[in-house]
Each structure stands twice: as C-alpha cells, then as structure tokens.
Amino acid sequence: MHEGHAPGGELAGVLSWLAAFSALAAVVLYTWAAARSRRRGRGWPAVRQACFALGGVSLAVAAVSPLPGGEFTAHMLRHLLAGMAAPLLLVLGRPVTLALRVAGGAGRRRLLAVVRSRVVTWLLFPPLAALLDMGGLWALYRTPVFAATHHAPLLHALVHVHVVAAGVLFSASICQVEPLRRRYGLAVRAGTLVAASAAHAILAKSLYGTPPPGTAFPAGDVRAGAALMYYGGDLIEIGLAAVVAVQWYVASGRALSRARPPAPLVP
C-alpha cells in the first residue's frame, strides 16, 4: 500500500493500485449479489450492504490515497483503516451468507465445505486468530521487518496482505456472524477481545517511546502515530465489543423466553 516514501517506485505503485481495484471490484460483486437476492424475493439488509461498501472503500483509500500527517502517522492511519476498521466492516456485511444465498446448489455446497472445513474452523478459533493478528503486528513493529519493507516492495505488499487477512480473521472470529462449523462461546470471544486489546495498547505505548528498529522517523511523528494507534484501536475494539454485547443480549433474551413458564389459560 502507498506510503509517503513508497518502496520500489513503479512496482509499489502497481501493487497499490491493484489492491485498490480488487477492493472496489469486491464491492461491485457484493452489490450485484445483493441486488440478485432482492430480485429473487429474498431481501438483503441495506445496513449490511453499506458496511461492506464502506469496508471496501476503506481498503481502497488505504491503498492509494495520500493521508494526513507525517510518514509514520500516515502509515498508522493506514493500519487502522486496512487492518482494523475495514475488516470489521467487511465481516459485518456477511459476504459468505450472501454468497450462499445467491449461489447455485453445487456452488453452495462447495462454499459450505470450505467455510466449515477443519482448517477454517481452527483459523477462526478466537485465541489463534488473535495470535495471528496481534503477533504479526508485534513482529512487524518490534523487529527490523518494518524498516525492511521500505526497501522491498514485495515484502511491503506481503506484510499488508497479512495485516488485512489477519484483521478479517480476527474480526470474523470475534463476531461469528457467518454459518460456521462451530460457534465459539461468548466468554471465549470476549476474553480474547480483552487480551488482544491489551496487546494492541501495549504495543502502541511501546512505540510511543521507542520507534520500530532501523527507522529514523522524527520523534513527533512517531509519538503522533503511536497515539493514533492507541486511541483509534480503542474505538474499533469498542465496535467489536458492541457486536459481542448485542449477541449476548439476544442470547440472554432467548434463554429467558425458553425458561419462562407458559401463561395459564384463562377460561
């Protein structure tokens, strides 16, 4: 994705525009699928479509649009857009459910086989998804990897692909809104979210005092970027917590309804 000093010149630019085009193409495909579902008489909520569209646009903006602030601050804003905000919005759009709704019988079976496979089930185990997401960020910012991405465009692209993919996995593991093979309990998801939020906050605080190894960003830029990571991450994590809280509220209401004895018949 684009940086103030993009590594690799033309190659970096091509990869950035390819990422932006892919994100917008996914939005167009999703919009077509939602319209097809409605034509079949099976409505699709506009709020889900809006979430997915905003997620795709966020990815495209992170890929190619110049962002305010110094180089590190702009990079951190891209991290929040591509690695946290966009994944949450994409997951809330429930693209797998939509694809299952519009796919034919054979396509539906193949997609369900993938979504409910053992590999996907393990990848969506919340602690593992959190480790892939937060562990990748710690490896990026607390080792020389981040500095190396400024001189290796393919590494730069691979890092951002991992950030987006790990963010989607983490958001999907916490929200659990698709037809998965196994839905992990609210306690596991809430506990994982708290632990991951703490890891993200500690990383941001460490960056405030010590920049990534091998970099030479101005101190003010590093502090501004670290503060953005800290407070911006909190906002997005509150959004994830809100999803879990709503699911807990709905599940509790259903449990109470089942436990409530039926009203006596009045003669």
What do these coordinates show?
The protein is built from eleven helices and no strands. The chain has one domain. It is mostly helical and 267 residues long. It is a multi-pass membrane protein. InterPro entries: Caa3_assmbl_CtaG-rel. Keywords: Cell membrane, Membrane, Transmembrane, Transmembrane helix.
Notable traits:
globular, transmembrane, cell membrane, mainly alpha, about 270 residues, membrane
Fold blueprint:
Layout: H1 10-39, H2 46-64, H3 71-92, H4 95-102, H5 105-115, H6 118-123, H7 126-141, H8 145-149, H9 153-175, H10 186-209, H11 219-259
Helix pairs in contact: 1-2, 1-4, 1-9, 2-3, 3-9, 3-11, 4-5, 7-9, 7-10, 10-11
Summarize the structure.
This protein is an all-alpha fold and 267 residues long. It is built from 11 helices and no strands. The protein has one domain.
- Enumerate the spans where pLDDT stays under 50 for 5 or more consecutive residues: none
Q: Span between N and C termini?
A: 71 Å
State the helix count.
11
Order of helices and strands: HHHHHHHHHHH
What class would the helix/strand composition place it in? mainly alpha
Shape: globular
Binned, the helix content reads over 70%
Beta-strand portion reads under 5%
How large is the radius of gyration? 21 Å
- The number of domains is 1
Number of extended strands: 0
Tell me about the largest β-sheet. none
Mean pLDDT, all residues: 90
Organism: Planotetraspora thailandica
Keywords: Cell membrane, Membrane, Transmembrane, Transmembrane helix
Subcellular location: Cell membrane
Pfam families: Caa3_CtaG
